[in-house]
Design brief:
With about 190 residues, the protein is an all-alpha fold. It is built from nine helices and no strands. Helices cover about 80% and strands about 0% of the residues.
Length: about 190
């Protein structure tokens, strides 16, 4: 590996670690209602994204794909959902079976209410990564958003049969039951 390529890879890894750190700090600030801190951290994420954009022109092969994945994440966290989708799709052209990348694309498709596309991506996630409690909760949540309540309930029941120790799916099932009895069926039915 040439020195320049090694330096690029190292810089991308450093920026990736920054993105993860900023993401964690941003989630914490948002959960605590710290608006000013959230705003600053979002600005920091945008700056890291700019640095990744600059490196993207030099990156090739897997480094380029990794940079595209990173940019998708930055765009998603900073509210540029359509741009995130674009970068994730570009990265998927090289890494079509990367489950983490597919998960991120699924999330941004759901945010844009592109449910049919999200359902196709979810099938790829299952194909390459298998059925997990989270994937099945996501599938149930997607069905609920699509108005397919019966399929959502069946998917949650199926998940419970496969993963009886999964307390999060049990909580979703309990909330669905409570919510069906209340005024707003969807209230409290958070799947992600």
């Amino acid at each position: 590996m040439s020195g320049q390529k090694a330096d690029l890879k190292l810089r991308l890894l450093e920026l990736s670690e920054k993105i993860v750190d900023l993401s964690d700090r941003l989630s914490e600030a948002e959960s605590l209602g710290e608006t000013g801190k959230s705003y600053r951290l979002t600005g920091d994420l945008k700056e890291v994204g700019s640095q990744v954009e600059d490196l993207l022109t030099q990156a090739r092969d897997d480094d380029r794909t990794f940079a595209l994945f990173m940019l998708g994440s930055v765009y998603a966290m900073t509210g540029y959902i359509a741009r995130a989708e674009e970068k994730y799709r570009q990265a998927l052209s090289s890494w079509p079976d990367h489950v983490g990348l597919l998960n991120e694309l699924f999330d941004v498709l759901v945010l844009q209410e592109k449910y049919a596309e999200a359902e196709n991506i979810l099938e790829s996630i299952i194909q390459f990564g298998g059925e997990t409690p989270l994937v099945l909760r996501n599938k149930a949540g997607l069905f609920a958003k699509m108005g397919k309540e019966e399929e959502a309930a069946q998917t949650l029941a199926y998940s419970r049969s496969l993963f009886p120790e999964d307390t999060q799916t049990l909580e979703v099932l309990e909330n669905r039951h409570v919510c069906h009895c209340g005024k707003n069926k969807r209230e409290g039915n958070s799947n992600k």
